[in-house]
Write the structure tokens for this entry.
Amino acid sequence: MMKASNQFKVGLLIAIIAGISQSARAESVELWRDATITDDQIYLRDVCTLSQFDNATPDQFYSLAIGKAPKVGEAAVVSMADVRRVLQENGLNPAVTTFKGATDCAVKRIARTFEPPAGQVADPIAGASTRRYGGRTLREVIEADLGSDAESLGGWVEVVYGKSIGSMLDMREGKYEFEIHRTNDKQLGLVSMDVVVFSNGQAVQRVGVVANVTFIKPTVVAARPINLNATVSKRDVSIVNKSYKRFESAGLASTDSVIGQRAKRFIRVGEIIRDRNLEPVPLVKRGQIVQVHSKAGGVVIESVGRVMKAGAYGDVIELQTADRAKRKFTAMVTGPGLVSVGPIHAGGLGADTHLALGGEQ
């Protein structure tokens, strides 16, 4: 009976662990708050992100149509219930899928192209010309516009285009000129814009472009586990290219500000190392007897004091004199086991010099 009971407990534990593992890998559908389209239909790829699916599954589901698109310039609402219905009708089991994000997605439709005015003959733009021209391609123009902020932050952007723009991306400056007008206020994520193409000073084509923009930046990550209170060394970190959907989420680009710092918590392998996870290594500890350098006039006098609070380089801390009077004074940490008072450092601490030298308060 005892053995059977133990076997039952082990089996239950394995089931729980398996359930947790399955939950950690659960498929998820995240509905966006807003989207911009150019097609006659609203597709699943236009409104949500699918995660943790098998490799082929997202492509299969992304091509599903949710409903008819609104008229150009108008908007429609796609609800989470609409998404669940379409996915369930096409074989998704909602019981093992996590649905998150917005409750509703506002979908705006913008114009794809327009015809030139009557009497104006348009050039065959979409790849018909075999002549080569200098200058940038339309792709390079768009990505330079989208990547201006990324470059100032030490990174670049990757852009995935919707199908509406097609072969226009290969058009080149010299024969054509381009104007790009953003139609939403996003810098990353789903960015929509109007691209106007000019030839000989005349607008000959316009296309509404929807692009998924990702910020890529070299980022400091943990090369191996870093324990709580461990001092980060060179072999603990590495730099890899990381992708972000928000500029403010980007991590540190240089190991200089990381190496020599102390971890405030456990950091996993591959985790982005952020300022908030680090702190300076204390050079003096509470209760430690340290050297005190006091400057009076042009003379520096050495004495000792007891630290009341740990401090890193540059910290202003409180100490006690080492005599029986145990008078308190403040000083700046300037090295391992070393503090300074008086004009040796900034911060108006010169008034404590008298105490550090053993004078009466």
